[in-house]
Write a structure and sequence with these properties.
Length: 455
């Protein structure tokens, strides 16, 4: 196997002209020769980037790696193929004398090895960059999910080790957690999805994936620190106060009211309008869609894991994350990137409801910083990761339009059943126990988003 994979820099050549012994490798790995060629293509294309080749000769190829290839590879050769990519990548890193990976028995004991699942994604990739910058050794496990990546991203960190495979694959996960001191669990299917037909995929990637990771972590002799990427969607609605009845939980908004343009939730006891307030972490969990249900389940599984193993587990409830590397305009992308895509295409951003719905937009570099703090902190439990400054969705659209110099937003009055009216966070607990405070202001973040590379 090593012979087939040991090759000089010309590995960047996706023609694979230099590979020999394919038949032997195929026999060893139970992957057909044709599938193996595909695996090696992935390795060949990504490798100089993964290896930190300063010449980055293959970086242009990374963008050309079509996910169809990976998909085909996954379907046809699972799970051997992903493991092979991992092994192949590890071999090369070892050959190259790079620091820290599981295939390198010489790895120095005093360097922290962190596993970042979903480390090729929007948030995960920034976590990887922060950890690497702080001197940690980082291993990434990511499937390059086709809904999330049309092609392999160009921003992979050359100092990290990349394992391309599925968190639902127990063998691969067992290999990935080996030697790891802490885990940042970002891998998930995100967004609201297109319809209920997505339910099995959401539960599979998010909950079965988390369960698989937790089981492998629980089998290790010593617990690893675990930080879960959770979400404010677990709260359902935000928090509201009635001047007569105090804190109240409004029912999901009724279609007739939304149809009539009455977007504000009202008190179910007296029908007065309600004042929104920042949501603290002890607010009731009330997931109101499939994605939210899978995030709540992730938290609950992680809490059970913490109780049974004694591991320290922290759930970071991100609010609306925005910034460079956001996925583009898809049903799974956040509103900021949907607006940005519209403006780039010369269209006016379409703002739902009356545009006055409040959110907490938190910059992705702040979210990455919160993850790094949590990985090093003794604090456990759930924490809001937010800016603490509510802004309306309409303001986001108009500020972004102004920054880009694009068409003024249109407020459409459209709505999605189940959407939250207002949700923004109390940031006190994260400040007190994690020492986390968002640093990137809304004005600065929106200005940057106007030109930031999306994915
Ligand atoms: N972006 C936000 O506004 C936001 C808000 C709250 C919470 N979150 C959470 O943050 C985390 C990261 O989200 P993101 O916005 O970076 O999304 P993303 O889609 O950019 O990243 C998720 C990554 O997970 C990978 N992945 C998916 N299924 C996998 C599997 N089965 N095995 C291995 N890898 C898999 C994908 O390939 C992708 O690279 C998620 O857990 C999400 O629920 C995000
Ligand atoms: Zn009331």
């Amino acid at each position: 196997m090593t012979h087939a994979l040991r090759h000089d820099g010309s590995l960047a050549d996706p023609e694979l002209a230099g590979f020999r012994d394919l038949e032997r490798v195929g026999a060893l790995t139970r992957v057909s020769e044709r599938e193996l060629v595909r695996v090696l293509q992935v390795v060949a294309v990504c490798q100089p980037v993964l290896l930190g080749d300063p010449r980055k000769r293959a970086s242009r190829h990374v963008g050309e790696l079509h996910l169809r290839e990976l998909d085909h590879l996954r379907l046809a050769a699972e799970p051997c193929a992903s493991a092979t990519v991992a092994a192949a990548t590890g071999e090369r890193r070892h050959d190259g004398g790079d620091r820290g990976n599981r295939f390198d028995p010489q790895r120095s004991a005093d360097v922290t090895l962190v596993l970042v699942t979903g480390g090729c994604g929007f948030v995960g990739s920034h976590v990887v960059d922060e950890l690497v910058a702080g001197g940690a050794d980082v291993r990434v496990l990511d499937l390059l999910h086709p809904l999330s990546h049309e092609r392999a991203p160009e921003y992979l960190n050359p100092e990290a080790e990349y394992v391309f495979g599925d968190i639902r694959d127990p063998e691969l996960v067992a290999q990935c957690v080996d030697g790891v001191e802490s885990v940042s669990h970002q891998a998930a299917m995100v967004g609201l999805g297109s319809d209920f037909g997505d339910v099995v995929d959401y539960v599979g990637h998010n909950d079965l994936g988390t369960a698989t990771l937790l089981r492998e972590l629980a089998r290790r002799p010593a617990p690893a620190r675990l930080v879960l990427a959770s979400s404010m969607v677990v709260y359902g609605e935000g928090r509201y106060r009635c001047e007569e009845h105090g804190l109240v939980r409004p029912e999901p908004r009724k279609q007739e009211r939304l149809e009539a343009g009455a977007f504000e939730p009202t008190c179910s006891l007296c029908s007065r309008s309600l004042a929104p307030e920042a949501v603290p972490e002890d607010a009731r969990i009330d997931p109101r869609n499939v994605y939210a249900a899978t995030k709540a389940q992730q938290e609950q599984l992680c809490a059970a894991f913490a109780r049974e193993t004694g591991a320290a587990v922290t759930a970071l409830r991100y609010h609306n994350v925005y910034g460079p590397r956001m996925p583009r305009d898809t049903p799974y992308a956040g509103v900021a990137s949907i607006f940005r895509s519209a403006l780039e295409g010369g269209r006016a951003p379409q703002v739902f409801e009356d545009g006055r719905q409040l959110r907490d937009f938190v910059h992705v570099r702040d979210v990455a910083a919160a993850n790094v703090l949590a990985l090093g902190a003794p604090a456990t439990g759930a924490f809001n990761v937010a800016s603490g400054e509510p802004h309306s969705v309409g303001d986001l659209a108009s500020d972004l339009a102004a920054a880009i110099g694009g068409a003024a937003p249109e407020t459409t009055g459209d709505y999605r059943l189940g959407d939250v009216r207002h949700v923004f966070a109390s940031t006190e607990r994260a400040a007190a126990e994690l020492g986390f405070r968002a640093k990137v202001s809304f004005a600065e973040g929106v200005r940057e988003l106007a030109t930031a590379p999306l994915r």
